[in-house]
Amino acid sequence: MKKNVAVFFGGRSNEHDVSIITGMLAVNLLRGAGYEVMPVYLPLDGGMRACKSARGVEEFRGSVWKQFDEVILYGNALVSPKRPKKAKFTIDCALNCCHGGQGEDGTLAALLNWNGVLSASPEMPVSAIFMDKSLSKIALRGLDIPVVEDFTVTEREWTEDKEGVIKRAEPLGYPVIVKPSALGSSIGIRVAKNEEELAAAFELAFSLDGSALVEKYLEEKRDINCAACIIGGKIELSPLEEVFSSEEILSFREKYEDAGERTSRIPADVPDAIREEIDCYMKRVCAAFRVKGVVRADFLVSGEEVYFNELNTVPGSLASYLYGESLTEGRDFLVKLIEGATKQEEKKIVQTDLLSGGVFGGSKGCKRR
Fold first, then answer.
1. Which residues contact 194 (CB under 8 A, 6 or more apart)?
2. What percent of the chain is modeled with pLDDT above 70?
3. DSSP string, 147-179
4. Is 32 exposed, middle or buried, given 0-12, 13-18 or 19+ CB atoms closer than 10 A?
5. What is the rounded distance in angstroms from the CA atom of residue 231 to the CA atom of residue 333?
6. Domains of the chain from N-terminus onward
7. Would the pLDDT of 368 be above 60?
8. What is the pLDDT of residues 3-28, one digit of tens each?
9. What average pLDDT score do residues 281-305 get?
C-alpha cells in the first residue's frame, strides 16, 4: 500500500536555505520510490505551506512560495485553517529536514508527537539537548565521553561583567573558540587569539543567540564525522568521514558555498583504535537517548585523543551520502527510514475511568468546599 509522506523543511533558522535544499532532495527521492509525498514548507515568518506541485529549490526563492496553500496540523492531517475538518493530505509518516531553529531543537518533533503523527526523525528529548551545545556537554560528560574543555556565558553575564567573563577564558589559554550555543553550520563561530578578539566574538555570538560556549582551541586537530541510522533499536554506523579545511575552523562558506571545492575522505584514514573509540561513543549516545532515525556526530581528533564535538539530529542531506554515493543509494536509505518508522508499535494509553464515579477521594482527590 502506497504511504503518504510529509517532508518538512525551512523554518525559523539561520540554516533555512540549506534546509530547503535537503528537503527538496528528500522529496524528489521519495517520489522516485513511489511514495505520495507532500512537501511542507515552513516560512521564516512562521506557519506552514503545502507545496504539492513543488519540484525544485527555485520555487522557494523570493516570495514565490506564497502561491502554496497555508495549512495547519489537525491530528495526522494537513488541513486549511479555514476548513479544519477537510484534510488536504493525511500523513502516514513525517520526515524532518529542518536544520537548526525550531525544526531541529525538538519543537517540530513535539508538535508531530502531540498530533499523533509517526515520524522517521529523532524525537524531542535528544533534539532539544543536542541543539544546545552547553546542555550537550553536560549530557556527554554524564556519559563519560570526552569533550573539549569549555565554559558557557549568557548574554546577561557578558553585559553585566565583561571583564570578569574575559578573565574566565585565561585558564583555557588563547586561542579559544566562541560559539553561539544553539546555532549550527558554523554560523557565528569565531576563533579569538586575544582579549580584544574574544570581546568581538562575544558581540557576534550574542547578536545571534542568548548564550555562548567558549572552548579551548586545538591547534592540531582532525574533523571526523560519523552517522548512525537507528531503526527498531538497531544501530547501523556509517563509515567515518574526514573533512579537510583550509581555515582555522570549518566555515559555513566551505561547507556550502564552496562545497564543490571542499575535500573529504570516506572512509577516513584513522588508526583502528580511534575508529573503535568513535564507534563506541556513537553507540553509547544513541543507546542512552534511545535515538531513532538518522543522526550525525562530529568529532575532533588531536593526536591520540578523541573528543565528541556535537550531534546533529537533522544532518545535512540527512547524512545519506555516508551510506552510499549514488542517488539510488540515497533513495534506498530514505526508504529504509520511512519503512522503519511506520513499523513502530503504538503503545497503549491507560484509561483509569477516574472521572466516571463522580466522587473524588484519597489524598490526591479534589476537596469539596
1. 174
2. 91
3. ---EEEEEHHHHHH-HHHHHHHTTTT-SSEEEE
4. middle
5. 12
6. 4-121 (3.40.50.20), 149-216 (3.30.1490.20), 219-313 (3.30.470.20)
7. no
8. 999 999 999 998 999 999 999 999 99
9. 97
